[in-house]
Each structure stands twice: as structure tokens, then as C-alpha cells.
Amino acid sequence: MLxxxxxxxxxxxxxxxxxxxxxxxxxxxxxxxxxxxxGKTTMVRAVTGMVRPSAGVVQFNGEDLAKxxxxxxxxxxxxxxxxxxxxxTEMTVLENLEMGAFNKETRAAFQxxxxxxxxxxxxxxxxxxxxxxxxxxGEQQMLAVARALIGMPKLLILDxxxxxxxxxxxxxxLQVAADMARRDRIxxxxxEQDITKxxxxxxxxxxxxxxxxxLEGTAAALSANEHVKKAYLGI
Length: 235
Ligand code: ATP
Fold this sequence. Notes:
By secondary structure, the chain is an alpha/beta fold. The protein has helices spanning 40-48, 70-75, 93-99, 104-108, 110-120, 122-126, 137-150, 167-184, 195-201, 219-224, 226-233, and strands at 2-11, 14-24, 29-33, 55-60, 63-64, 78-81, 155-159, 187-192, 204-209, 212-218. The protein has a domain at 1-77 and 155-162 and 187-235: P-loop containing nucleotide triphosphate hydrolases (Rossmann fold), CATH 3.40.50. Helix content is 41%, strand content 26%. The chain has a six-stranded mixed β-sheet with strand order 6-7-8-3-9-10, sandwiched between helices. Strand 1 (2-11) and strand 2 form a beta hairpin. Helix 5 packs antiparallel against helix 7 (137-150). The model has no long low-confidence stretch (mean pLDDT 95). Bound molecules: adenosine-5'-triphosphate. Adenosine-5'-triphosphate (ATP) is lined by residues 11, 16, 34, 36-42, 193.
């Protein structure tokens, strides 16, 4: 489904990503792991068209998206839940969800997808008419995920969903992501600093260090890897 090969990207004259290659299959949950500043967000931006790659291929269902606009990429079904959620705090929960229907297809399916989103996150239905800014941090993250679901993703990108949230809420959100992957065959790219939680949920993972892929493997293999244990898990 997603096949990134030899990707280079950065900001102006500064290169951040060096020949990054990774794949995500249909229905697979792939974790992108790494510490602060390793290049994870830049990698997401290069996939979603927010940063123009200077080299490499971002192939999605056979088509190279490396030179396409972020709007085009969104239309292909690559939907991101951005770091920091970026919900509209003055708007109601329902209005935020409406913003997730960004094209004809998703607008036509809005009511049906809204029902599914409410089933997954019943708290959002209870608070549909409330200003999104009054929600708790966890509820705001749920809203950001639900809004992405309204966009009918084929590939859902979650950028640091655990940021600032209580562990049990992170578990709930990752559970929804796992459920979507297993049941609806949506692919999930999970970018996380909380490596323990990410590996508990993912099928496979890649560790980024200084803009390069340092390690890759199944979640089980990475959890057992001595470097991962020492550098990231503190064991
Ligand atoms: P974090 O977990 O803190 O978000 P990250 O792994 O996602 O870290 P990036 O945000 O991709 O890392 O940052 C990688 C490098 O790129 C850092 O050195 C950062 O300072 C730099 N960088 C990020 N955004 C920009 C920008 N808009 N302009 C210039 N440099 C940037």
C-alpha cells in the first residue's frame, strides 16, 4: 500500500531525512519510533505533501505521490491526525467532525461515518453541541481521531497521540486504531515517543535516529532488541 523508498527531505538547505525506506501494508499497524528531533514529524510531512522530498519515492497503491500536493494526497486517502490535535476550540464537537468531510465522497457518507465515529467514541456524541475547547485533553484527542475517520482514510497517520495524555486514555485511542486496522483493513502509521505503548499495538516498527532508519523489525523483535531496550525502554 505505502512504499517509501530512499526518501530525503528537510527544510531549505538543511537536510533532515537521509534515504529513508519503509513500507505499510493494508490493515497493518506500523510504528515509527524515535526520540525528540529524530525526524519523525518531518517524515510524516514528507508523506502528506507538507514538506517536498528532495529525493526518493512515496508510492501509495502504485502511484508516486512525492511531487503531489497535500490536497491530492488527502484525496487518495492518506489522512493525518496531527501532533497537538489541532482541533477548532471555538467550534462545537459536531462542527469539528463536519470539518473532517473534506470532499464530495466524504460529505456524501458523512451521516453514516458520523454514526460509526460516535459508536467508537460515545463521549463525543454526548458532547456533540459543546465547544471543543471545553473537552478534556483525552476527549480532544478522540475528537481528532474521529475527525480523521470522517475523512475515510485508507492510511491513517497518528502523530504522537500519547502526548500529554493519561496512560489509560492512550490505551483507549490505540485500541480504536488497532480495531480499525483489524476490522476495516485501514493501515495505520503510528508515530510515537512512547515506545512501549507503540510496540504493544503495532505489527512492525522502524526506529529513526538522526534522520536515518537505525533499526526495523516486528514489534516483538524490536521489544527484545538490546539497543531498543537500553536506549528507549530503560531496561
Ligand atoms: P518531535 O518528537 O520533537 O516532534 P521529531 O522526531 O518529530 O521530534 P522533527 O520534528 O521531524 O523530529 O525534527 C527533526 C529536525 O528538523 C529537528 O532538528 C528540528 O529542529 C528540525 N525542524 C523541524 N521542523 C523544522 C522547520 N519547520 N524548519 C527547520 N527545521 C525544522
